[in-house]
Design goal:
The structure is a homotetramer of 255-residue chains.
Chain A: E1 4-7, E2 17-20, H1 28-40, E3 43-49, E4 56-59, E5 65-67, E6 70-76, E7 81-87, H2 94-109, E8 115-123, E9 133-137, H3 143-148, E10 162-163, H4 165-174, E11 179-187, H5 194-208, H6 215-239, H7 248-251
Parallel strand pairs in A: 2-7, 2-8, 8-11
Antiparallel strand pairs in A: 1-3, 3-6, 4-5, 6-7, 9-11
Helix pairs in contact in A: 1-5, 2-4, 5-6
């Protein structure tokens, strides 16, 4: 089986902006992009299947199985047209990352993509009170406009570069002449992080001129905040000799 | 070497039902499907070889070596024709799972398969007194008939989806328009589980209208029950300061 | 780069017997086959290169580097002609084992191989005073002649089958109609084992009617015996509170 | 995506000497070769991309991302022409090493390479006060000239052979009739080692008749020396009950 795209619908979008949010550190990209899909009412138009994705099916709310895949959504919005790339998994092997990103770029090639934004997180290893959003670009002409919405640039953040689809999309689109940026939120690396996801969406909404309701992410951020407090208290309790187990409800938030 | 099928016999089956039982959690699928092959008197008609199976030979009761392979059996039964898929191993790598399942589907394609049932287990992490049988389907129209034989549906069971051949057969057959279901028995995950295998066969025999003698699986289930008791007692003995080692005979049951 | 054979010399051998001794448990096959090459004066005629062998060069006694490879030797002997397969490594990945064994069989195909013997060890996990030699065959007609030279047959030895080239050569040659046997010496699994290697050569010399001087292997076996004694004594010494470190000289014997 | 070369500039070099310094033990090859590129003023003329390199982009000092790649530089120098092979990563899988080295050799094939030097380190596991430089060659005719510049030869150094691009370049160029040597500096294996890098460059400058300023590497060697002293002192301090953490500045030196 080869990596392949199943088109659900032919679309004819003028110069769309592609936003990628596959799973990664803190699931920031996934949270942000799925929220955008919901809020902007984007519609699925293609699925990418690959033997480099995990060999498994997931079960949906109708008890129906779905082969693990990457999904492409689109929406024609006021000021910009969008394509969104989401999914539950990335490639399980290194070579597969190249195959899958190449397939994404070939699938959207006919739509003459104007700009790519990939969204990720980078782990600081400790709780971050007010996370910064860092950027990296495959074309330096993008830096100024990103700085205007307070995206930070620091060549050592993240020091090891950007791994996986969020990085490769910049690397491989550069060779096709598409300008692309990656926005990365600081995050502990231990839990799903709606705070950073929300901050990145605020920057994107300014930059790309769309309005978006962030209430749902704010609610999740508060829940996470409560959870972090609870964990802290339990830890202190444990250190004092008590040892309550985290409940199933709590663990739901762990990536 | 490519993944390939060696046909031992050409068969001409009308609209068979395919039942898959490759090794997995609790070896439930393997136990159930091998039991069906024995009881219904199915005959081997094809072998699938693949470089994605382990690079080894197994030794049979005649001291003859056999390259690790997947075997296809068939039987024309009163109310239904069957193809069974069994073997001692699954793919050793992720991409190989796709290759092997694709090869299985291509091999049976000429027989115009009517329906696929894959059998698996999902690990609860602790001994289960009366295991439930959960189902997942690649077509929601199958749910009602499965509920009639008391198959449970719960989108969170198993939460991580279905991994390996039992999952991929649903995912890849969906794209060929074949309706398929996976039946999964709850099991500890620590030992071979004839209890769940037996329960799944009872449901299949009602659903697919065949009679089957389950005595052998019941006997094995009782042995396992005895073994579980012994392990429990030994554990208690050990906690009281004695430390008998599990005998070779006991370990035979461990997957 | 593909797996490929570099012929050093064209040979025209009548119905040779192929003996394989690639590295494995206790290096029994390697020791035995390299000894045969030396004693029978076999000559190298081909080298197999593969990207599935480790990506490295080894340094020989002339300080010259050699790409890791598998080597084929041949000799025309009184009662039988021989091809020997040796090397310093096996495949680094599962799929590669199939590629390499396929390449070996294709390289020797023109010589119309009469019979294949692969040599291995199987680990018992503890020191074995008088190791048995077990056999496995890809054609049951070979069993009687092997029993005549006291090769044991037991379908549960080794229980997990035969892994790597020694196993696959039986599996893949079967499909070409070549009869093949694997001889396996019991061994601890912790050290290089010239004792088992020697025992297997005694059986092969009877079976295939060649005379061979085993003095060198006997000498190494005595060294190993001495080493085992020393380790035992050191262990006892350590348990009594003294803790001498194994010397570099001792470690030389460890696989 | 296949392994491929992007030519930035067509070059027409007469019988160049190729020097490879991809990352490895102590980053000796990388340090030495990058220093040569700077000091001799070599110019980049080609980039090699491969799905066997890590699936990631690195961020440069302009905050621009660059797909991980291997870079080829060239310079026409007084007495010799040079091609340099550098990069931030080697292959992530075994088969990929073969692909990438094959690609390097094919890219430079048109330039009729005269000689190859690969640079590496081998780990001794402890701090080395005055490291020796060992050599290995794919053609014994090279040994004498290397001994003249005090390169040591010892078939057991390194015992396990040479792994990765530095080894494979010797192995695969041998088959193309190109003479090649690997120079390896003794190093602890724990830190980046400019001392060994410097020693190797001294030998190469004599051998290949070029003048080179080594001040920068000497400065770095002194910094490392200071660092090693500090670590030693801290260790002693820790053993005396104090436990200062290594500062970010210190860690910068760790590979």
């Amino acid at each position: 089986m080869e990596t392949q795209t199943k088109k659900i619908k032919e679309i004819d979008l003028e110069k769309p902006i592609l936003i990628e949010g596959l799973p990664g550190v803190g699931h920031i990209g996934k949270l942000a992009t799925e929220h955008l899909i919901d809020e902007l009412g984007a519609e699925k138009y293609a699925e990418i299947y690959s033997p480099h994705l995990p060999p498994q099916v997931l079960i949906d709310e109708d008890n129906k199985t779905n082969l693990v895949r990457i999904e492409l959504y689109y929406v024609e919005h006021e000021n910009n047209n969008f394509i969104f790339v989401v999914g539950d998994h990335q490639s399980t092997d290194n070579v597969g990352h190249f195959e899958i990103v190449k397939e994404i770029l070939e699938t959207v090639e006919e739509n003459d993509v104007e700009r790519i934004f990939t969204i990720g997180g980078f782990a600081t290893g400790e709780m971050v009170d007010s996370p910064e959003i860092y950027g990296a670009v495959n074309d330096v002409s993008l830096i100024d406009e990103l700085k205007e919405v307070d995206v930070e640039f620091d060549e050592e953040k993240p020091e090891g570069g950007i791994v996986g689809a969020s990085g490769l999309l910049l690397g491989l689109s550069e060779r096709k002449g598409i300008k692309a940026a990656c926005l990365m939120g600081e995050t502990s690396g231990y839990i799903v992080d709606p705070v950073s996801a929300q901050l990145i969406l605020r920057k994107l909404s300014k930059l790309l001129e769309f309005e978006i309701d962030l209430q749902e992410l704010e609610d999740r951020a508060e829940e996470i905040e409560d959870l972090a407090q609870k964990i802290k208290q339990k830890k202190q309790a444990q250190q004092q000799g008590q040892a309550p187990q985290p409940s199933g409800e709590d663990l739901r938030y762990i990536g």
